Amino acid sequence: MGEFELLVRLRDRLPPVGPRVRLGSGDDAAVTVPGGATATSVDAIVDGVHFRRGEAPPQAIGRKALATALSDLAAMGAQAGEVYVVLGAPPDLEEDELDALLDGFLALATATGFTLAGGDLTRAPALTLAVTVVGHAQQPDDLVPRSGAQPGDVLVLTGELGGAAAGRLLLDRPELGDELSEATATGLRRRQLEPTPRLGAGRSLAAAGATAMIDLSDGLSGDGLHLARASGVGLRIEAASLPLAEGVAEIAVGVKQDPLQLGASGGEDYELLAALPPDRLEEASRRVAEVAETTLTTIGEVVAGEGVELRLPGGGLLESRGYDHFEDRSSESR
Amino acid sequence: MGEFELLVRLRDRLPPVGPRVRLGSGDDAAVTVPGGATATSVDAIVDGVHFRRGEAPPQAIGRKALATALSDLAAMGAQAGEVYVVLGAPPDLEEDELDALLDGFLALATATGFTLAGGDLTRAPALTLAVTVVGHAQQPDDLVPRSGAQPGDVLVLTGELGGAAAGRLLLDRPELGDELSEATATGLRRRQLEPTPRLGAGRSLAAAGATAMIDLSDGLSGDGLHLARASGVGLRIEAASLPLAEGVAEIAVGVKQDPLQLGASGGEDYELLAALPPDRLEEASRRVAEVAETTLTTIGEVVAGEGVELRLPGGGLLESRGYDHFEDRSSESR
Q1: Out of A37, A96, A221, B214, which residue is the most buried by the measure of CB atoms under 10 Å away?
Q2: SS3 A213
Q3: pLDDT in tens, B235-272
Q4: How far apart are CA A86 and CA A91, in angstroms?
Q5: Which of A23, A28, A198, A216 to mutate against chain B (most B CBs within 10 Å)?
Q6: What is the pTM (predicted TM-score) of this model?
Q7: ipTM of the prediction
Q8: Torsion of the alpha carbons at B47, B52, B56 and B61, rounded to the nearest 10
């Protein structure tokens, strides 16, 4: 299939263009009329690195490529805008697989109100999707960076943790799910294969006055540390308050891991971690509930200092020192 | 080298951010304050498809990845804005090669006034650069689509044709350059390896009232046809007026091709083809000359009808029927 055929195939599947797009796919560049500020992010997934072709249905791959990119805009609290995709197609990519990829990608674009405004198609040795997402805001201050958290702010988290990591383990070793209900096992696999960007919750948190926000692609330990360092503060998280997804505890036991570590450091949950002035917590909770997309849980507070502390119910203390897991520092702190 | 090291390396090399960037690389998304309209394009190059690693210096590869993307913005007449890059790094990419790639990329960004505002780095089986470019305008109508050409408009072309195609042949078969001066041969190779986006000329043509514009990545036959079809018109081009780059004739003879075909259909010259109302030609010529980036040549006119005709000095007629070359239709038209 040549590039022109691919372009026609893509264009035939495009949903109607969004209100900001004056000139969509097919010219040298897309022309848009942006808001007073834009948030732009690029993200790529490659077969063999971020997913395994054949393991997941192609719809799920197309969907995940866009979902992980949109998660970055969710973490800014941006309004829906435009997406652009570079598709690197290997020689053995058949029409059916391409159609299914595009279906998954476009279904999520439509569901989230984003317009596919341009793209490029090229041959490549491995299936590659490089996605550019553009969100809008009335002014730059309406978008939430990682860097504004203040000591005294409360820390809130959308949704539940550990589901994607447990789903990854379950896909690799199906026998780990023997003790789970089919619904729970399916839920965990979907958390891994079909993450959902928390766009509505992100806008709610931004509108409620979030001072800093980040999406959890690398896990609470790693991304919490990113937020803490960008803001020049420390985070104190109560382990007992962390909402773990159903089935995470059982999977963790099956691989002899601490459920808390799997939940806090597993990554790929794409939930949002945000800091809020305490007097904005009620409004944030109300706004997130109104969107009815996911839950909001208070998990700790912002403190002066640095790093991320995870306080255990028994009085122990774990600390994120790198970006991949929490370590015990109880012996030092006593 | 891990992703974090790569990110630090990239960030250390970033030039100062442009005036529209409020939050650059390092957060979930870049925050910009756009103009009244934006032009956005994505473009990717892959080792083994668009270039051959090892043949060209890595600086030239980094430069070309950005140059070909910016050429699309040149064809819109857009003001400088932001660029974003996804770098797919194969396992054997060494630090020196990466540094040189980034040097070439960033040198062109700086030279053209664009800010690198974000990126993503990933492992990939082949070196891949997916580039997103965003240009600005005060309002959508300041940007020039492919679709506005009117019968009676004059057709103008920046620079010279055939140099990139001749350079490609010369790189493959160095002996073809035996009859050329070293300066001419070097010039042809550079046209292939280091194309220059005609951003200044594009803005000049837009300001002078160009009705349609396109950059010549596929050649005059293919891209002329794109413009003609988008505008619903025909193009009539005088072959005698086409400016061929120095050395193209000699290389064409060496491979037993018609120099005109090599020039008109070789592709990768990244010059601009534009349509202008006749009364705007003088202003366009003056503005392009003021930028002093390249020349402007009148090569024909826009006519009612369809397709692209190339009129030969002897009275013959060639026609672009597909996107790859001109065909003789003299026998039909007599």
Answers
A1: B214
A2: strand
A3: 999 999 999 999 999 999 999 999 998 999 889 999 99
A4: 16
A5: A28
A6: 0.92
A7: 0.91
A8: -20
